[in-house]
């Protein structure tokens, strides 16, 4: 499997593969990127490669070190993962372990998950190891937020950024590797923002799927129902208050699709492809200029939430304004 089991991150993977093959490695790496992009998977492969006894392409997946790790009992690769903050005691313990030399010719790798959760004291303690690491030691720090780390820590690491993958790549991955049908893959890929962890979570998330269906029904009601009936739908938004950011994203995506279809009559760029009949209906009903204004209304609603306006009022105004654009 090796690095190929990680979606996207081509450049980063290529750089690491080359470095492992040529044994041009450094003592500290900092893997940055939002949750769900695969930092742990990269760290795992990097650690495996560093400890691998093979020559050429590493990890070789055949040597004793690779086999040990695959069986989950590699004594020289340690993960530091804490529920809350990472305290100085944890770093000291790690440093104590680090002083014990590994067996002849082998390496030690420490992976610190959520490194930004280290307290200031913990970071200062770690700095000493980063300044003078034993020649057999490698530290891999993982973080979604490098700005919370001391600049002196960051500057001693080789920084590597993980990036969201393209929608196309995500779709292909879901279809090929997860046996998702193409229509669903398109929807999930669009809402994953290029984060594979998020895509996998959405795939299992029935509540997300139901919310999306309900929102699409509401967009239909905006056309078909009168204002009084429509205001009853505010209850849905109240019940789903915790998910309002996602709901507004779904609404934006929806009217974006309606707009694209209205403008181009092409299905290629439609996200909500499983609801194409509904998109046809709505794009037929709504004038182009109104759809654009509906997008502005949702965008404004988002902005309003950022400035702490009353939740229900903001939703009601949005619905009434959307209805205004769907009256004929
Ligand atoms: Zn190996």
From TrEMBL:
Reaction catalysed by this enzyme: DNA(n) + a 2'-deoxyribonucleoside 5'-triphosphate = DNA(n+1) + diphosphate
GO cellular component: DNA polymerase III complex
SUPFAM superfamilies (UniProt xref): P-loop containing nucleoside triphosphate hydrolases (SSF52540)
UniProt EC number: 2.7.7.7
Organism in which the protein naturally occurs: Anaerovirgula multivorans
Name of this protein: DNA polymerase III subunit delta'
Domain (DNA polymerase III delta subunit C-terminal) ranges: 209-323
Keyword check for Nucleotidyltransferase: yes
Domain of life: Bacteria
Keywords, sorted A to Z: DNA replication, DNA-directed DNA polymerase, Nucleotidyltransferase, Transferase
GO molecular function: 3'-5' exonuclease activity; DNA binding; DNA-directed DNA polymerase activity
Pfam families in the record: DNA_pol3_delta2 (PF13177), DNApol3-delta_C (PF09115)
Nucleotidyltransferase in keyword set: yes
GO BP terms: DNA-templated DNA replication
């Amino acid at each position: 499997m090796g690095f190929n089991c990680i979606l996207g991150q081509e450049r980063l993977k290529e750089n690491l593969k080359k470095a492992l093959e040529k044994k041009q490695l450094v003592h500290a790496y900092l893997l940055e990127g939002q949750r769900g992009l695969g930092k742990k998977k990269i760290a795992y492969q990097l650690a495996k490669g560093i400890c691998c006894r093979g020559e050429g392409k590493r990890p070789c997946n055949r040597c004793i070190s690779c086999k040990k790790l695959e069986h989950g009992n590699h004594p020289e690769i340690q993960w530091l993962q804490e529920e809350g903050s990472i305290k100085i005691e944890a770093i000291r313990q790690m440093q104590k372990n680090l002083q014990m030399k590994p067996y002849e010719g082998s390496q030690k790798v420490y992976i610190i998950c959520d490194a930004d959760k280290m307290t200031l004291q913990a970071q200062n303690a770690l700095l000493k190891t980063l300044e003078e690491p034993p020649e057999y030691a490698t530290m891999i720090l993982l973080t979604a937020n490098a700005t919370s780390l001391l600049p002196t820590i960051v500057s001693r690491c080789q920084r590597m950024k993980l990036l969201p993958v393209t929608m196309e790549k995500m779709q292909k991955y879901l279809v090929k590797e997860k046996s998702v049908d193409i229509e669903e893959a398109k929807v999930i890929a669009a809402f994953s923002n290029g984060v594979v962890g998020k895509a996998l979570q959405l795939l299992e998330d029935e509540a997300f799927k139901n919310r999306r269906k309900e929102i699409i029904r509401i967009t239909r009601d905006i056309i078909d129902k009168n204002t009084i009936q429509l205001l009853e739908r505010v209850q849905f938004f109240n019940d789903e208050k915790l998910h309002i950011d996602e709901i507004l994203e779904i609404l934006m995506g929806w009217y974006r699709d309606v707009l694209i279809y209205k403008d181009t009559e092409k299905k290629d760029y439609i996200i909500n492809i499983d609801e194409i009949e509904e998109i046809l209906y709505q794009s037929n009903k709504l004038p182009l200029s109104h759809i654009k204004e509906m997008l502005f209304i949702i965008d404004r609603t988002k902005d309003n939430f950022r400035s702490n306006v009353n939740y229900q009022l903001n939703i009601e105004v949005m619905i009434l304004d959307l209805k205004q654009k769907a009256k004929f």
